[in-house]
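__Record contents__

***
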Amino acid sequence: WLTWVTLPVTGTYTVLADPYGAAVGSISAGVTVGDVTGSLSVGGAPVKLTTTGPGQNATWSFAGTAGQRIAFVLTDGSFGSGGYARASVRNPDGTDLFKPAYCQPSCAFDTVTLPVTGTYTVLADPYGAAVGSISAQLTEGDVTGTLTPGGAAVKLTTTGPGQNPTWSFPGKAGQRISVTISGGTFTSASASVRGPDGSVLLPKTSCSASCFFDATVLPVDGTYQVVADPAGIYTGSASAQVNIVAQDVAAQAAIGGAASTLTTTIAGQHGVWTFTATAGQQVSFNFTGSTFTSSSDVKVKVKKPDGTDLVADTRCGANCLLEPTVLPVDGTYTVELSPQNAKTGSLTLQLYSVAHLTGTVAVGGAASSLTTTTPGQNGSWSFSGTAGQLVSFNFTDANFASSTGARVSVKKPDGSVFVAATYCGRNCFLEPVALPVSGTYRVEFDPQDGNVGKLTARLYSVAHLTGSVAVGGAASSLTTTTPGQNGTWSFSGTAGQFVSFNFTDANFTLTTGAQVTVKKPDGTTLIAGTYCGRNCFLDPVTLPATGTYTVEFNPREEQVGKLTLQAYSVTDLSPASIVIGGATSTLTTKTPGQNGTWTFNGTANQKVTFAFTNASFASSIDARVSVTKPDGTALVSPTYCGRNCTISATTLPTTGTYTILFNPQSEKTGSLTVKVALGG
């Protein structure tokens, strides 16, 4: 399409289409005359305009007066699939009051003061050849209300897009106030506070539902404004309140002295504790007794005598401990209590002089205990180690309320982390690690938050056990005697060999007391870790390669004990053929992990019953049987049958060869007899 032109003279005009080169074809032409126009009234209903030809604009005019505060909103734009319009507002002299902005399906121009008296134009310019409709509306002025400092909240509701709820209140120089906005129903909004001269006193902050402006001192006498600014075309309501904030609450505290409580009662009120200290003192700050709801409701910080931060803002609405800090200078320090978001409540502070505990422990020697008595107090054990030494760490006698009540870590001789911090408030065990260098190591004991308590450390020099076992050979036992000690059996295997693993003689307290794993010759896992603290059996697996395999025996945590392994070469019994209505058939397994099968020919829709007898197992759960169809899918799901069982009348779905699987469980072996009969 061609853009708008103003015809210079009256007469007959020609539209020419000139195909390029030798091209032939057809094309249609149309002529659109003028824009679509309408009139708006300030505060009136929306006016909808519809364009009918490419290039047409929708334009609305309205009479405006200098000083009027007007907001503009365009809604319900519809310009076809992918179509849109650009909207703008023009002054009476044709210059832009608002520059063009994308407008699909709606847009808004926020409240503005009209600069002159005259006829203004709102313009919607569809993109390209798009046609469609859109509505425009004018909203005049903001919604206003008056607040009394220290008085009740006042609710304002906007009724037109672009309107701002604006509250005014009288203020005096030096007055200390805070502002609370609550109950907002806007999808998106911001809020700010303006001074008597219209300048920003407190900058914009997000305020869709609620927000809070912390205590501030008014600089001059005059009328201040609280302004909520809904985004776009949103309307809704919000309540504002101006609080007169009394002086901050204050109290003195003493290092090693009694606890001190501060209580704020007015939104925006803060608290300050002061204490006198000497350079070099190591002090912890324990905050308890909070009446706030969540950790984010309060922040605390510590300032040096010169007013700079010693400890930065820390969330403390649910109590907290500021870890021991060495005071850098003599003088009076301050601890600031800053409730957040209009919250009020109480918090208690107690200051402690902290002296950390030290102890020594020897690898392979006796246990050593440390007991902290002061919140923030830590402990550390030092020990001498040799490069390559394999050491495990067992921590007992912990008397903290939960596992998160304390943490332990291990540092190298150069002070860097060797074993990362681990929760240990209810005892813990650190698996063996090889010491990287010779020197003095340090085990750190760090009670968390304000907790105090006891922990005992014992270090072990660990040498792992090795053994060998032959597939089809005798059993082999390993017994660990040192916490953290593991064992490994090796065996030679051939690709394609079918091997099962039977573990017996376990003397651990629980099944979870030990794990076993089987590794391939390349070190990757063949059978993943399996709990085996009360014996276990690993079903037969096919060895993927020829070489030396390893079976790893890993007692958990600090536990020690015995485990015996026997590996079996497994060959399943040859399938036995039976006949429906024919004689019984017996299978007997002799190797742990060995299975057996019977096969029989069946005809579609035959109804058969399976009777299993002469079971030689100790328990019903020692063996299972199942039946598969000719295509290998299940006809009868696995059924426990270690003490005989019957599978009631089952209709065969298709003609073909069916299979009955006899599967002794775990390491069990034994006999089972089957008879398949017609009917139920």
The CA atoms of residues 152 and 185 lie 19 Å apart. The chain has a mean pLDDT of 95. The radius of gyration is 43 Å.
